[in-house]
Amino acid sequence: MPAPLHPGARHPSLRGQAPWISFVAGGSAALVSGAVTHPIDLIKVRMQLTTVCSSQQSLPRTTMMGLASSLVKTEGFFALYYGLSASLLRQVAFVGTKFGSYDALKAVSVSGQDTKELNFSQKTLCGFAAGAIGA
Fold it and tell me: What one-character-per-residue DSSP string does the chain give?
């Protein structure tokens, strides 16, 4: 049987890794996903606004691709990225915090037990807590 970890000891899989690595990794992944999906979200919102306006007037309904091409023609390609900075800041704050706190919670949870691995319910509890911290 392996020796128990003393309080404050880091999980074996996290040894040698700086505690902020998870925050940076999660934040970086969130930046990439936010930059890729932002134009789609912007078009979705514009379509929703067009639907609201067309219910008050008789405007023709448009498709996602039609709205995207119209937006690029009238406002330029970078119009697809209007509001990106706010989206990225939100993603980094929420997702980075969730990733960082999840690993920290796992390290604290494993330090009080004899085994090196957490069971499913412990991992789930760490995930719930990390999600609450990140929200």
Answer: -PPPPPTTPPPGGGTTS-TTHHHHHHHHHHHHHHHHHHHHHHHHHHHHHHHHHHHHS-PPP--HHHHHHHHHHHH-GGGGGTTHHHHHHHHHHHHHHHHHHHHHHHHHHHHTSSSSS--HHHHHHHHHHHHHHH-
